[in-house]
Every structure is written in structure tokens, then in C-alpha cells.
Amino acid sequence: MLRFIYAALCLVSFTLIASSQPYDRIITGDYVRQHFKLQKGEVIKFEEFKKKTYPTATVVWGVPDKQDEARIKAGVAPSGSKLMVVFTDIRTEKEYDRVPSTYKDGVEVSGIGRKAVWSEKWKQLSVLLTPKLIVHIHLDHQGTTDLKEALIAVAKDIQKSVR
Fold it and tell me: What residues contact residue 84 under an 8 Å CB cut-off, 6+ apart?
């Protein structure tokens, strides 16, 4: 009996691992290099994927600064342009309904995902990509002329990468 329970637990664990989405490979330093124009002297200063409250990808780029290393050691991203994506797995699509209410300046966006809302104040786009995945995409980059369109492009790239 104990062997059966152990085998069942292993099977459940394997199934959960096999079905989990590899979010850590979507937004990386390579992604930023391919999709954003780094100016002369700029480098990828910080690249991190970790589970905070939710799995979060953060990439910071810019001209290296003396304070970069100290900020990273202190657990803070260095200064520079920043792309951050939070992958929020949800149980039901209805959970998305809370998202628009968090933005006082929220504007619905069509043409991406199942539903989306844009906040100019927060420089963020939140998108229900699948019935069980919301992504919150934040970009702070001086070189972007149309921030909303840049975030929509990132969301479309992410959508291609998720199930």
C-alpha cells in the first residue's frame, strides 16, 4: 500500500512538473537585445527570473555605473531601462476581473489576449493571455516612442510562447 501511495505521489509530481510553463525562458537579456535598441555603451546590467509573489522576469540595461554592483548586492536592480514581466497563474478566468479595478487610469485594449488593460501612469499592460494566465508587463525605457504599442508587442511575443 505504501508503495502505491509513493508511486501515485511521484506520478502527480511528474505531471505537475511536466505541465508547468517554462516562463524563465521567455523574457531574458537576449530578448531585450533582440527587441529593444541598446544605445552605444549600454549593456544588460541585470537579468533575473525568480518567484517573488509570482514568477517574475526582470531585465535592466544601460550604461554601466559604479553603483550597479552595490545595488545588486543589496537586492535592488541597478538603474537603467527596465522590462519586468509578472506571470500570474489563476484558477479561473473570472479572477482577471479584479485587474482593471486596480488601475484608476485603466483603458481596455483590444487585439491582444482574451482581455487587456493599459495604465499609462504605471507604464504597464495587464493581459489575460489564456483562461489561466495573466501577465503584467512593465517597461521603463526612454528610447520607446509609443510605450503602449511596445508593451502590446511584448505581450504578443509572450503569447506565442505560452500554451
Answer: 56, 57, 58, 59, 137, 138, 139
Count how many domains the chain has. 1
Closest among 137, 157, 153 to 145, alpha carbons compared: 153
Distances (CA, A) of 66 to 24, 69, 79: 28, 7, 11
Q: What is the pLDDT of residue 28?
A: 96
Residue 98 falls within a domain, yes or no?
yes
Sheet with 107-108, side-by-side order of all strands: 43-51, 55-62, 81-89, 133-140, 124-130, 115-119, 107-108
Give the Cα separation of 68 and 78 in Å (integer).
5
For the whole model, what pTM was predicted? 0.84
Give me the domain span that covers residue 43: 22-161
* Tens of pLDDT, residues 16-50: 333 345 799 999 999 999 999 899 999 999 999 99
Classify residue 89 by burial, with Cβ atoms within 10 Å: 0-12, 13-18, 19+. Answer: middle
CATH number for the domain harbouring residue 43: 3.40.1000
- Pick from 95, 84, 79, 92: which is nearest to 45 by CA? 79
* Domain-embedded: residue 12: no
161: left (phi > 0), else alpha (psi -120 to 50), else beta? Answer: alpha
